[in-house]
Amino acid sequence: MREKQGLNELISYCKQGNLRYQELLYKQFYGYALGICIRYLNNRDDALEAANDSFIKVFKSIGSFNEENDFKPWFRKILVNTSLDHKRKSMRFSEALELTDTIPQSIHTSVIDKLSAQDILALMKHLNELQRTVFNLYEIDGYSHKEISSMLNIPESSSRTYLTRAKQALQQLLATHSIYTR
């Protein structure tokens, strides 16, 4: 409870345009921001740029933030949307094909239990751009296929298929990885 009060006070000063408190908010949430952006973007430089652009958006729109709500989900939405905007600059989703006919497969949880978050992020780098983006949006950030379809300008069925293919690719990578984790 005390932590939320401290954050609300910090946000209150940021709403007043106090640069010292904006810097404190930036420092407090920088790691969180970079962690989210790096999941969506290919390299660290792009992720840094998206994180910094997100903070600019936060400080421009913080006046509309209601302290009754949690800050992190509000901020995460800005981070995800900014990362996707950066991704759109380098990759075009507009000509995505409608994909169908995939067979879901199961992933063995014993292998997953042995992996660290860093291992999983490393494995995800082997996915293609669209698969990684859909996987992040659906599995990690909780967006629906309808929302993903709208965000990426692809059919809903393609979103489902990209997710399935991402899971299949991760399963194959996990099988290879499990040889090393035994």
Structural class: mainly alpha
CATH superfamily of the largest domain: RNA polymerase sigma factor, region 2, helix turn helix motif
- Shape label: elongated
Mean pLDDT: 82
Rounded to the nearest angstrom, the distance between the terminal CA atoms is 43 Å
Strand content: under 5%
CATH topology of the largest domain: Rna Polymerase Sigma Factor, Chain: A
Q: What is the ordering of alpha helices and beta strands? A: HHHHHHHHH
The helix content is over 70%
Largest sheet: none
CATH architecture of the largest domain: Orthogonal Bundle
SS element count, helices: 9
Count of DSSP E strands?
Answer: 0
Alpha-carbon Rg, integer: 18 Å
Question: Which regions have little confidence, pLDDT < 50, spanning 5+ residues?
Answer: 93-112
Count of distinct structural domains:
2
- What's the CATH class of the largest domain, please? Mainly Alpha
